[in-house]
Amino acid sequence: MPRIALVTCRPGPQVSADPDLPVLATALERAGAEARPVLWDDPHIDWAGFDLALIRSTWDYSWRSAEFLAWAERCGKATRLANPAEVVRWNTDKRYLGRLADAGVPTVPTRYLPPGAAAAPALPTDHEYVVKPTSGAGARYAARYTPEERATAERQLARMHAEGFTAMVQPYMSRIDAAGERALQYVGGRLLHASRKGAVLESGTPYDVKKVAHPGLTPWEPTAAELSVAERALAAVPAADELLYARVDLVDGEDGRPCVMELELVEPNLFLFLHPDSAPRVAAAVLAAATA
User: Which of 88, 93, 128, 151 has the most CB atoms around it within 10 Å of its CB?
Assistant: First the structure.
């Protein structure tokens, strides 16, 4: 019986519990595996005792990025880690968006401000924009600004830089207010399902408060254009053939065409509560990876 670690974290004020964890554990057990939720930072876990460590809801990693990456390296040497440590390292730094753009993948235009960089040239003066860290999850430290709110945006940048974060500045993709954001999820190299959610960042919401990460979530049937962009993005990932799971978050650009907002390869929510028929398919793919 394959032993699978479902890797998660401790819920807390800024970290939600994972509603999919018991669903996935049950599906894996029905498929013939032993599935056990474990904390990624539990020092007593013998990772070599598992056939596969499946990263699921390590939703506190962005607070402890260096520690998390070191764990991924150790775990990947002790057992098979999904996704692999190489992919985790690449995807935890959102500067990967620049690499996707360089590869010709349509992405949200992004400028990067490391600690010490001047804010003035990067903050737009003629349209709304978003400021957020290159290492973050669940819209943590993300906020939406108008040009008139420049002073507040500069205070956010100063706070982030003081804490060692590199900041991202992106135009606010206004079509998201009507068309929403679409999440295309892949397991075992094939489309699993897709979902649509509303805009996360409301005007005037402080950057340092917890946001609703997936407002108005509904099932979605992806268009041919969305599938094309998602597949181009995944093909540009280092070690793409080793991906067990992936989520591609898309929004519409000013031209109405889909572009990549984020590529979630570390700990994307599976939304099994919204797509219950997907649980057996996920379990089958995980079991196949654990016994390969």
Answer: 88
